[in-house]
Amino acid sequence: MFRIISLVISLVLCSFFTLGLVFGMTQLSYGATQTSSVDLGDLKYNHFRPQWGVGLNSSPVGMGDKNFSLPTNENLALNSFYLNLDYQPSFFQSYGVFSVGMLGSVQTPKLVNDSSKPGLIYLWSLGGDVRYQARYFDHQFIVPVVSYSVESLNYKLRTNSKGILISRGPTFGVWVLLNYFDPGNGKDFFYDYGIARSYLTFEIKNSSGTNLDGASTSEQSYYCGIRFEF
Predict the structure, then answer these.
(1) Is the C-alpha dihedral spanning 176, 177, 180, 183 positive or negative?
(2) pLDDT (tens digit, 9 = 90+) per residue, 53-88?
(3) How far apart are CA 92 and CA 98, in angstroms?
(4) pLDDT under 70: residue ranges of the chain
């Protein structure tokens, strides 16, 4: 009798052990399947907050009313090429993206009135800006942007005179996220080069300023360009 009871108890224990082992293996297999379906690399890419941005913008053929008035009362439109570098702290990215940065430009004259040679030889600028991106969720396709910049415009005239002009004003724009069109290559770009977001940028810049020599600028110009954030 004792042997029969021991055998039954052993069978019950073995049954419970077997069921527990099968259940545990099933749970491990299910967990592995769930983990493999969620790429941890995707999590890093999708939720990464880039802290730096570099943009290259151009306004060829003087698009818009971008006038630079010389002391000789000659009005010029300017072909502009801007390069900007921004720092955007990660802790300021919960309610949009705030950034502060520096920018520089090279600008060449395009005649408004018929003339053989413009009175301006060259113009370049250095300055800074603060920017806000209305970006509130991952892979946001359209990002409205507003910024305010202050620049020091340095110019040289054909009369060999030089001058400095302080220009300031707001810029409004819309950025289009390129990663949205090709997520696969966007992720590869991130892991290969560290660039998390790539944008096509379209902006309207408004700025004005004058100096004691009589030079002035009053521009509303249209820019297009590309921006990388990493």
Answers:
(1) positive
(2) 999 999 865 555 557 888 777 777 788 899 999 999
(3) 6
(4) 1-41, 60-66, 111-117
Query: Is 67 within 8 Å of 75 (Cβ atoms)?
Result: yes
Give the start-to-end residue ranges of the domains of the chain: 2-37, 42-229
The neighbouring-strand residues paired with 210 are: 216
User: Do residues 79 and 106 lie in contact, with contact meaning Cβ atoms separated by under 8 Å?
Assistant: no
Residue 117 burial (CB < 10 Å; 0-12/13-18/19+)? exposed
Question: What tokens does 102 get?
Answer: 């520096």
Bridge partner residues of 127 (DSSP):
103, 151
- For residue 135, give both structure tokens: 């970006």
The position carrying tokens 């939720």 is 47
Q: May I ask the CATH architecture of the domain 42-229? A: Beta Barrel (2.40)
